[in-house]
Design brief:
mainly alpha
Amino acid sequence: MGQTVAMGTLLTEIGIAIVVFASTNVDDLLVIAAFLADPAIRARAVVAGQFLGIAALTAASAVVAWLALAVAGGWIALLGLVPLGLGLRLLVRRRRAAPGGADAAEDELTRDGERRAERRLHSQVLAVAGVTLANGGDNLGVYVPLFAAAIERVALYAAVFLAMTGAWCWLGHCLVSHPVIGARARRHGHAALPFVLVGLGLWILSGAAALPR
């Protein structure tokens, strides 16, 4: 009987973690798909950056919950400068780039040899992680009270979040690989990504209006 109750409690906690992750990362799924649709960005950089960003958000939430601190939403909103800056940088780079579209952008990763490509990969991982962190204001707002209410279950929640991150990356890949949606996404992804990032950055920054004047 006790084992049945314990198993039921465990499944309930896992279900809560899944719902919490999904509800706070719906927009992240679209951002992942936008990154994957851009041929200039490596898929493994997107996956690694997403895992790094979610891991950082989860760790930060656990620390804040443990210290019982409150994070003002207005200050978190200032992280919107990260995707805004990346989007503007991509727009300027695309404007200055020679004609050639996606092929030229894709070739940029390897034209100067393997060492340059690896440096670019690392920068892409950090860029994706930065966008994930910047878009994580709602994650912090939900994860912190969840962790604070059950600090002993943080490890379980973190494991579920990481598993869900993998599922999110897979779903993003499925969207881009769809025979109809994917073809259009790959065709226009490199052009749409800067606008997606700029829009995301402005949306996140709108929360900074709550800062005290």
